[in-house]
Amino acid sequence: MWRSSSSASCALQTGHEPKAAAASHRYAVRAGGAVAGPDKTLDAVMTARFGHAHGYVGTQYGLGE
Asked: How far apart are CA 19 and CA 63, in angstroms?
């Protein structure tokens, strides 16, 4: 794991993007940090950020509901 991470870091420094960046359409997981006030429920934050109360965006990737 360390060697892989180190290799990826060196590649980025020389201007080479990771392979995964070129194939983002293959991934059904999307990072989603959000900052919200205490008056917001988790469902409201997830719906605002992802369009779904649980953060599921599978229909965008052909995984169904």
From this structure: 23
DSSP string, the chain: -HHHHHHHHHHHHTTPPPHHHHTGGG-----------TTS-HHHHHHHHHSSTT---GGGGT---
* Residues 28-65: tens digit of each pLDDT: 666 667 778 889 998 898 888 878 787 766 666 665 55
Q: Which residues contact 56 (CB under 8 A, 6 or more apart)?
A: 50, 65
pTM assigned to the model: 0.41
Chain centroid, CA 47 distance in Å:
15
C-alpha span between 15 and 24 (Å, rounded): 18
